[in-house]
Fold this protein.
Amino acid sequence: MTKVGVIGANGQVGAELCLILARRPDIELVAICRNRSGSAFLRWRGIACRHGRVADSTDAARLIADCDVIVNSSLATGNPAEIRHTEDLIVHNLFTHSKDSATIVHFSTQSVYGDPRPNRLYRRQNPYGRVKLASERKVRAEQRLSRKPAYILRLGHVCGAMQGISNSIRDSIRARSVVLPTEDCSSNTVYTAAIIGAILQIIRGAVPVGTYDLMNSPRWTWREVYEYEAKACRVEFEPIVAPDRPHRSALAMLRGFIMSVVAVLMSAKPLVEFGTKLFVHVPDRVNARAMAWWLSRRARREIAALTHTPSPPEHLTWVANGVNFFPADQPTRELLNALEADSAANVEAKPWPADLPDARTDGVRG
Amino acid sequence: MQPTDSISIGIVGAGAITRKSHLPVLVNTPNVTIAWIHDHRPETAKALADAYGLKSVHTTAPEQLPACDVALLAIPVDGRGEYLRHFAARGTAVFCEKPFATSAAEHRNILASFAPHALGAGFMRRFFQYALLLRRIVKERRFGPLYGIDVSEGGRSKGSGADASFLDDPRFGASRGVLADLGSHSVDLALYVSAASGFDVRSCTRVMDGAVDRKVTAAVRLLGVASESAAPIDMNYDVSWLDGQNNQIRLRFANATVWSGLGPASEVYIGDPAFPQDAMSLASEASRAVGATTYNQAFYLEWQHFLEGLRTHSESLISARSALLTTSLVEALLTTAGSQHD
């Protein structure tokens, strides 16, 4: 029996992982939440919790000191400085107050790779990605000091029964408003079943310590994700396929850029007035061409506003990430099927269990 | 007080609602100055005041707080008694966050100490654009008489974003359940939209986590609604921190069903809620009213109405007196409910 602590157990991902882990006979789950309001859902579903702040060094040992594996699924909140500070404290206390033989599993994100939109010369990170990258560095530094095995899992878009992405996909399927691009592309999705699979592989010691991109195995395309979700909610899948945007040559892109700069300049009133005066002195031919361009641009915009062309959601065009994929030993589809069978066989636990007792802290340094 | 006179506001409570909503709005409201910020945790008040370039005050008793024209009480309902007594004695107007009181008797006691225009309750959803439209539809009987209302709100508790919550503090027992904390908003919304003047609780069940309600399901008859029939209408009400809800308000009229989400930018639809893809939006109707489509706009409008009432000595749309029925219904649901522990 392996004792698995989950920090941030009431979060979107943490809660679903806890519900799945709690059903496993080989796992003793320690769900850790900061307060009782936050843990209400888990306790209602029969999962006993410990309450406290891992970021607080006086609290950390009683929360995690008896766990064999600690999964850090927490997400600090506050202003950027507060988030960074809290993330550092959590990671430091994880290594300092866990037992010497403990294994750390730290959840990171695909946002560390930066802007997901295609055709970017520079993929700028958002604040969330920057904080998570800094946390990864902190994990590696603490790992070197403590010599405890640590795994950094960069999660893709997490899908699952309780995940926002899956729910919005199911809503769009039920509303028959799914718009897919003609060309199917790889998603960065990972189902909670695949995350559980990875944790179990780590517990078995079957994976070398390191930083991994954790996604479905083999990688799913967006169409596969939508088809799976449609099947899960028992609705016929009827996507609208949006026409691809015509490929633009480098010259066309440059021309578009110049014209958009001109358009911005022309929307400034003083410049418009100046341009109008200037055009009095230019030849008729140039005047006529400028007027034609202006009129056709206005007409194009108005026509575009009139006709609604379905377009796929932006995330369906995001670039496929990943440099070091987690070596999953089972396809995600098999894990999902096993999970479904397991869910059907299991009886719901009794709600509102007593809180878990604190960990005994003998023999833990820190 | 002249319409352009500046009004000074003292703030009691430097928690999330002050930091994220009241202060950003008040510093952008014309003819308003923030006199001071006070919190029982002086370091929290100072940090917030410093962030906005304002003054924080630390006292151990309400009597030591500096003077102001209006006091904003953004602290849990159970801790407001001393402040209300002090400000009433001093003749200072008070604007309270929701819930306003824990019982109708307490609500009436507070009302008795203030002029109607000088006491406000923060049910800002009344200013949402969709709320204004729904109320108008009921009042004007656009789709015939109103037969029923279904309100559901909430979802499972997720990352709390806080180390500790007043909702877990036993000192604040009266306000820490889902009905008083979250539900009072949607109860008020239903009463506001229907313009009901009374109620009769038919049934109510609660899922309890110890002494705290985490889910409430109720059937209520609303009386005296602004509808042609004048007959009571049925309200089905659900609020939960345990499981997913529709987060909608649905009005069942004789000739149509009209519904909206509960977020500020929600649109009003007409059709069959089971087939949302076939529904028609009433967006153009909604945009005819000056209503809020963001939380900041709603907070701005509630302050604007309250301060306008204060300047003209007239009761505002957000007066505490107008929220008495909300407190009464929440209390009735809490006291008549059968509890279920599983």
